[in-house]
Amino acid sequence: MYTSAADRTGDTVGSRHLYQCFHPSQCQATLSNEVEFIYDRILQMDTSEIIVVFVQSPFAVETLKAANYCYEKGIKIILITDLLSCPIVPKSDITLLV
Q1: pTM score
Q2: Would you call 67 helix, strand, or coil by DSSP?
Q3: Which of 45, 36, 54 is nearest to 95 (CA)?
Q4: Measuring CA to CA, how many Å separate 90 from each of 28, 29, 36?
Q5: What radius of gyration, in Å, describes the C-alpha atoms of the chain?
Q6: Phi, psi torsion values for 88, nearest 5 degrees
Q7: CA–CA separation, 40 vs 58, rounded Å?
Q8: How far is the C-alpha of 30 from the C-alpha of 60, rounded, in Å?
Q9: Is the pLDDT confidence value at 10 over 90?
Q10: Nearest to 49 by CA among 28, 19, 21
């Protein structure tokens, strides 16, 4: 399921719309689950970048802090989670429920 920050009704939207929402001029993907690496990387991010956050219950405190920091910096957040009660949902630009 895809929901945008503006419309949390749960309407399903195809990947084409997702691509149109977040079409960076340059794409750089970095995957890691190491806390130190994640913090080092998000400190270098700017508002032209996007972070994809995978989180499931129980929610890891460090992940919530990292997502909150990105939200405060104005970095777009794509959230993939198993529960809409996840504290990051209101701060994410796109939420995918799995």
Answers
A1: 0.66
A2: helix
A3: 54
A4: 25, 24, 25
A5: 13
A6: -85, -20
A7: 24
A8: 20
A9: no
A10: 28
For the chain, what is the total number of helices (H) and then of strands (E)?
3, 4
Question: If you search the block for the tokens 């399921």, which residue do you land on?
Answer: 1
One-letter identity of residue 13: V
Torsion angle defined by CA atoms of residues 37, 40, 41 and 45, in that order, rounded to the nearest 10 degrees: 160
**pLDDT digit string, tens, across residues 29-45:** 555 556 667 778 888 88
Name beta bridge partners: 97: 81
Residue pair 3/9 in contact (Cβ under 8 Å)? The answer is: yes
Strand 94-97: give its sheet, edge to edge.
2-4, 94-97, 76-81, 50-55
Q: Which pLDDT value is given to residue 8?
A: 43
